[in-house]
Design a protein that fits this description.
By secondary structure, the protein is mainly α. It has two domains: about 50 residues; about 45 residues, no CATH class. It contains three helices and no strands.
């Protein structure tokens, strides 16, 4: 018996072809999984870029603003909210609350101050 094979030529041929087919199937499977993963990653990146830059309006589908447009809109809204939190020319919510407190103090001048909160309850 030789070290090169089994000594049966037909079996040696089947084993060589079986090994080659197994090797090709393994390489094909690895290649297919790599290509499939790359395509999946490409689709995800495409979705991310559409979300980041926004999409133009097209027939039947409204446009969507990108991330930077949305952030600038949020900043504008926050500046309007911040305007309401500080006293200014009498137009802010803070000015309205302060005016209501002043009027309430004027209305309640005759009443005694309520008892201070009990420290033992805290």
């Amino acid at each position: 018996m030789s070290a090169d094979g089994t000594g049966i030529p037909a079996l040696d041929t089947v084993l060589v072809w079986g090994g080659a087919i197994t090797l090709l199937a393994g390489v094909g499977t690895i290649t297919w999984r790599a290509v499939r993963s790359a395509l999946h990653l490409g689709r995800r990146m495409d979705q991310f870029m559409d979300d980041w830059y926004g999409e133009q309006e097209r027939p039947g589908v409204p446009g969507r603003p990108g991330v930077m447009e949305r952030v600038s809109g949020i900043e504008e809204r926050l500046s309007r909210v911040e305007h309401e939190l500080h006293p200014n020319s009498g137009e802010s919510l803070r000015d309205a609350v302060d005016l209501a407190n002043v009027r309430l103090v004027r209305l309640c001048q005759d009443e005694e101050d309520p008892a201070p909160p009990d420290a033992s309850l805290a």
